[in-house]
Hints:
Structural class of chain A: mainly alpha
Distance between the termini of chain B: 16 Å
Largest sheet of chain B: 2 strands, antiparallel
Largest interface: A-B, 27 and 48 residues
Largest sheet of chain A: 2 strands, antiparallel
Strand content of chain A: under 5%
Radius of gyration of chain B: 23 Å
Shape of chain B: rod-shaped
Strand content of chain B: 15-25%
Order of helices and strands of chain A: EHEEHHHHHHH
Oligomer: heterodimer
Number of strands of chain A: 3
Number of helices of chain B: 5
Strand order of the largest sheet of chain B: 1-2
Distance between the termini of chain A: 173 Å
Shape of chain A: rod-shaped
Number of helices of chain A: 8
Amino acid sequence: MAGDIEKNVEVHASVTGFDEAAAEVEHLEGSLEGLTAAEEEAGAAGAEAGAEIAGGMDAAAASAAAAKKEIAGVRDASAESAAAAAAEAAATSGLAAARKEAAASSDAMKKALERHRDASGHLRYKDKWISEQNLRGVLQNQPGGPEGKRTPDDVKREMEELQKAIRSANIEAGGASVKGHGALDEYAANLEKLKADLSEAEPRIDAMNSAIGGSAEKASIASTALGNWHGALRDFGSGHGDAATAKRAAEELDGVIGDFGRTTEGAVRGLGDLSGGLEGSEGRSARSAGRRSPRPCLPP
Amino acid sequence: MAGDLGELAAALRRAGEQLELNAARECAADAGQAYLQVLRGTTPVLSGELRASERVDSVRGGGTFAVATIGAHTVYAAFRETGGTITVKSARVLSNGSAFFGRSVTQSGSHYFERADSAAGGPIDEACDNTIARILRDAGL
């Protein structure tokens, strides 16, 4: 139509990248599918591995339990073996000691018998003829005899000797520089008490001695302290020692007695140890030391 | 997730195809309508005949290029755009029935198309955006 007017609106549409985007998405999709499959596979493998691990752990636990049981068995066996070995060793040791002691006793008995043999070769005891068998019996029953056997009576007697020695020492010491010290009297009193306790506890001494078979260390301490004490007193009494040494030794013995306790039970135990220490046994040097210590202190 | 991605890839491919085939044409149609609305705003109105004669005459093209044609369809549509001198040919004077204008009359142009061109840029872009969005949405994006 004449007079019309028109206007064109032009549109240019540039469409790019959609295919590429779709391709990327598809690639991602593929990757995710692969990943999912891998995850599923891994999950399955993990589950399988878990089952295997669980089975392995069960097997390991079973093995461990079996091993534990086996070890326990071995331990039991080795404990038995050790006990048997220890028993055997003890028996062997005891046998050797017994043989040694028997040999020593035999030698001592022979020497003792020889001392009672006169020029004609007969055995005499207290100016009487005596058979070898009877003389052996007499010698064997003497305190500190050739067989070395001691009874509670032996110990009690030796305690009395020790007490005498103490009082003698005290007198000697009292006559010198430690007059009025009183410590040795106290120890003598302690021994008096110990002796009384010993009388009361006499029936139990053997049992206690057995029970304290492992108290060799205490016996050693007691005998050592006793020996030191006696040595110090003897030196002091002969004018070679000094009061301080005697006092120190006395305190040491006091400590030992204190350790053993002064109650009846403690005294008995202490006496048990002490008597063990005094008990003559060639296999126990500590006890031998304890046995020897009182002798040099007897009054001249 | 993999299924969602598959759908996304398919939607992208559908959108790509639709855009390559129809985006320019559909955008031109909508842009023409947008221009028409702007034109109707700039068209001088006395009786309304000129404005009422304005329409999207055609949308042509396809693929990545299309053209929408908007026209005003009165005998003075173009005259009102550009203006001009009207000279009497057979009558003695020019008259509109109530007034006489002599043997010729000169009118200035309204330039309503020209002013519509200046004002239609934004609406056309917005219309195209909406068209693309619709295509993408229809494609499943």
